[in-house]
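User: Just a sanity check before I run the rest of the batch. Below are the C-alpha cells for the first item. I only need the designed sequence back.
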C-alpha cells in the first residue's frame, strides 16, 4: 500500500504582540507606523491562522521557526504559549524554535502608555528553553542544549531538525563549530538510517532576491556561504526559514552537486499574510509547497477592508502618503516624516528640491515612459493602452510590496515588464557610458535591470505553489547532475541611448546655465523665506 504524503503546516515570524503592551495613544501610533506588521491586531490574526490549522484534518503538525513574539515581552510569551497549548489540546503537534526577537539581553523592551514610551519586562535567552520545552524539546530524540536545538521524529522515516540559530557564539547568528559538529553527526546518523530530513532555522541561507543580498547581508545566517554547501553535503535538502518576512523559495547546489532548498515563509501578521503547507511525498520524490492566506478574523476591526489590503496599507501606506505629500504639501510631509524618524527640519530645508521632483514623479504616467522606450521594447500604443494612465509611482510601490510578497506578477511578455526593464536598460546604458560598473559596486548583479527583474517576475521557483524534486544524495568523489532553471528569451532590447542622453544633458545644462542658476536661486530663497520660522 502506498504511503500518503505527510502534510506539515509552517508559520514563522508570528511576532505576537500583547495588548498589555499598549495599543492606542501617540506613542503606540508612532511605533506602529514604523512597523511592517500589525501589532495590536496580531492576536486576532494569529487566532485566525491557528483556527485554519486546527480545522485542517489533513495536517496535524505545525512548525514555527522563530520570532514568535514582538520583542520578547513576557506578557506576549505567556499569552502565545496559551494559544499553542490550546492547539495541543485539540490533538495537534506543535514544534517551535525561538529567535532573536524572543528575548532581550537586558530583560526589557518598549511598551506604550498614551503619549509616552515605557518599559516592560522580557524573557532573557536562558529562560526560553524551559518556556518552550513542551513544544519540541520534550519529544526530542536528541538535543543540543547550548544552541537550544533539537531533533524529533515527525513520523516513520521523516525527521525534523529544529536548529536554533540565534547565536554562533562569535557575535553573529548561525551555528558555532561545536553545534555544527552535532548537526553533522545527527545528519549522518539520519542518512544511515534512511531518514528523510526536514530542517528549520530562522535566518535565511539563500538571499530571497538580489536586493536583500545587498541590504540584508547581515541578516543572513552567519557564515551562510560556508554553512549552505556544508548542509547540502550532509544531505539536508529542505530548510525552512523566516526572518526576512519575504515569501520565497530558492535553491542552491554544492560543488559536489547536492541540492538544498531554502523555503522562506512570510509573516502571517504582515504583507502578504501567509501560512505555508508542505506535502512530503517520499514515494514520488517530491515535496510540494503551497500557500494559504490567513483568513480574515471574525469581527475584524478594520471594517470593510480586506485583510490583505490592511497588510498592504500597513507596509506601504505611510510611504505612499509621504510620496503624495512630497509633491503637494511640504508641511504635511514634515509631519508625516517623523513616523520614519526623519526630522521635520530636514524636510523644510530640502523642500525646494523635494517638491518639484515629487510633483513630476507623481504626475508621470506609464504611457509617457513607454513612448521613450519604444525602441527597446517594440511596444505600440495599443500594446500598453491598458496601463498607459497608470502612475509610475504605483508601479514602484507595487515593486516594494513584491519585495515581501515574492509574487510573479509580470512575466517577460507583459507590457509592465517591458516598460520597467526597457527604462532600466536606458539607465544601464547611461551608467555604461559613464564607465560606472554596477557589478563592482553591488557585487551580486551586473546591472540595474537584473536588480529589479526578480520583483517583476520569478523565473526560478514559484514562491507560492511549487513541486520541489527530492534529489538523490551525492557521495564525496562523485559529481551530481546540474540544477538548471530554464531562462526565457529576452523580450526587451539593450539600450544604446546612454551617450546620446549624456551629450544632450551637457548641452542643455551649458546652453541654459544662467537660467538654471537663477531658477535654483529663486527656489532656494523662496523656501528660506516661506519656512523661515520652521528652519530656526
Ligand atoms: Fe521577524
Ligand atoms: Fe528575525
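Assistant: Here's the designed sequence for the first item:
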Amino acid at each position: 500500500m502506498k504511503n500518503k504524503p505527510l502534510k506539515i503546516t509552517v508559520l514563522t515570524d508570528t511576532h505576537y504582540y500583547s495588548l498589555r503592551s499598549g495599543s492606542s495613544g501617540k506613542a503606540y501610533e508612532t511605533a506602529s507606523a514604523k512597523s511592517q506588521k500589525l501589532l495590536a491586531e496580531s492576536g486576532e490574526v494569529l487566532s485566525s491562522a491557528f483556527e485554519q490549522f486546527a480545522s485542517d484534518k489533513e495536517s496535524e503538525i505545525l512548525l514555527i521557526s522563530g520570532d514568535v513574539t514582538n520583542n520578547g515581552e513576557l506578557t506576549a510569551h505567556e499569552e502565545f504559549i496559551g494559544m499553542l497549548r490550546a492547539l495541543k489540546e485539540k490533538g495537534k503537534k506543535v514544534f517551535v524554535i525561538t529567535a532573536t526577537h524572543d528575548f532581550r539581553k537586558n530583560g526589557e523592551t518598549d511598551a506604550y502608555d498614551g503619549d509616552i514610551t515605557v518599559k516592560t519586562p522580557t524573557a532573557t535567552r536562558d529562560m526560553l528553553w524551559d518556556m518552550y520545552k513542551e513544544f519540541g524539546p520534550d519529544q526530542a530524540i536528541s538535543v543540543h542544549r547550548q544552541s537550544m536545538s533539537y531533533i524529533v521524529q515527525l513520523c516513520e522515516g521523516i525527521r525534523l531538525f529544529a536548529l536554533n540559530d540565534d547565536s554562533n557564539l562569535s557575535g553573529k547568528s548561525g551555528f558555532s563549530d561545536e553545534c555544527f559538529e552535532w548537526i553533522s553527526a545527527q545528519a549522518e546518523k539520519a542518512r544511515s538510517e534512511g531518514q528523510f530530513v526536514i530542517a528549520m532555522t530562522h535566518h535565511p541561507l539563500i538571499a530571497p532576491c538580489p536586493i536583500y543580498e545587498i541590504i540584508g547581508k547581515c541578516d543572513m545566517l552567519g557564515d551562510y556561504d560556508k554553512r549552505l554547501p556544508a548542509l547540502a553535503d550532509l544531505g539536508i535538502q529542505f530548510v525552512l526559514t523566516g526572518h526576512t518576512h519575504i515569501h520565497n523559495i530558492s535553491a542552491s547546489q554544492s560543488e559536489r552537486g547536492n541540492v538544498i532548498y531554502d523555503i522562506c515563509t512570510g509573516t502571517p501578521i504582515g504583507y502578504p499574510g501567509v501560512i505555508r503547507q508542505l506535502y512530503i511525498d517520499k514515494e514520488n520524490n517530491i515535496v510540494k509547497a503551497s500557500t494559504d492566506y490567513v483568513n480574515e478574523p471574525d469581527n475584524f476591526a478594520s471594517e470593510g477592508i480586506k485583510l490583505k489590503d490592511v497588510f498592504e496599507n500597513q507596509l506601504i501606506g505611510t510611504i505612499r502618503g509621504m510620496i503624495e505629500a512630497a509633491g503637494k504639501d511640504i508641511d504635511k510631509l514634515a509631519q508625516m516624516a517623523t513616523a520614519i524618524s526623519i526630522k521635520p527640519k530636514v524636510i523644510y530645508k530640502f523642500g525646494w528640491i523635494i517638491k518639484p521632483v515629487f510633483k513630476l514623479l507623481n504626475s508621470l504616467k506609464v504611457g509617457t515612459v513607454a513612448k521613450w522606450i519604444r525602441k527597446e521594447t517594440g511596444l505600440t500604443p495599443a500594446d500598453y493602452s491598458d496601463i498607459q494612465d497608470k502612475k509610475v509611482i504605483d508601479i514602484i510601490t507595487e515593486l516594494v510590496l513584491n519585495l515581501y510578497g515574492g509574487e510573479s506578477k509580470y512575466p517577460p511578455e507583459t507590457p509592465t515588464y517591458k516598460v520597467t526593464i526597457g527604462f532600466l536598460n536606458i539607465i544601464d546604458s547611461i551608467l555604461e557610458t559613464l564607465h560606472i560598473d554596477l557589478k563592482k559596486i553591488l557585487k551580486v548583479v551586473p546591472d540595474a535591470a537584473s536588480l529589479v527583474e526578480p520583483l517583476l517576475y520569478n523565473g526560478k521557483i514559484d514562491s507560492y505553489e511549487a513541486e520541489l524534486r527530492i534529489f538523490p544524495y551525492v557521495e564525496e568523489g562523485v559529481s551530481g547532475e546540474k540544477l538548471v532553471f530554464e531562462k526565457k528569451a529576452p523580450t526587451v532590447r539593450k539600450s544604446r541611448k546612454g551617450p546620446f542622453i549624456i551629450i544632450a544633458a551637457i548641452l542643455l545644462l551649458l546652453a541654459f546655465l544662467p537660467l538654471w542658476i537663477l531658477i535654483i536661486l529663486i527656489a532656494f530663497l523662496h523656501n528660506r523665506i516661506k519656512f523661515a520660522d520652521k528652519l530656526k
